Amino acid sequence: MALRIVLLGPPGAGKGTYASRLMRRLRIPHISTGDMVREEIKAGTPLGRVLKEYSDRGELVPDDIIIGILEERLKKRDCAEGFILDGFPRTIPQAEALDKITGIDYVININVSDEIIVQRLSSRLVCKRCGAIYNRLTLKPKRDMICDICGGELYTREDDKPEVVRERLRVYKVRTKPLIEYYRRRGLLREVYCKDIKADPEVVVDEIISIVKEREL
User: Fold this and answer.
1) Do 3 and 105 form a contact (C-beta atoms < 8 A)?
2) Which of 88, 144, 192, 203 is 20 to 30 Å from 105 by CA-CA measure?
3) Taking the domain 3-216, which CATH number applies?
């Protein structure tokens, strides 16, 4: 039986971290619409060039383009047994479009306090050369401000500064609250909580696994 999961959660909630672990344990692909857009741009495809134009202008990619990319991805053979969707949907129209493409079994809403997210993101460091990610609190590099992998310089992104993170969280709550209610009304929403910035990600992953195993009982 296919297992189709949507992960919801604010920026910095750890969706990508949890999804990568869930992917290994459930043996279904992790699909990030953000990653797909970046891959198209990097590959320099005709679609990628269109996407880059939006990115260069700082504009959101229109829903119809994202939905088209996602629909093609979900047709691939590795999605036959299900998938973990991260970064989509973000709005009610996107959720309604997703309903027309595929069914969803569980929507997991990852709850993390604003303070933990501000701490986590403002402590994040990114390598200028290879893009590797570190954290001053939970994943320190061996040498201060130097990438373990390539020796590149580490830096803090502008959008990870505390005041920017708080604004991102405010916008997320305004935009996503209707989506959470949409899935709650349909009986698909499940809530999980991360209350400790240094908590092992496997604790949350175990909780999600126990939720999605409900239907086997």
Assistant:
1) yes
2) 203
3) 3.40.50.300
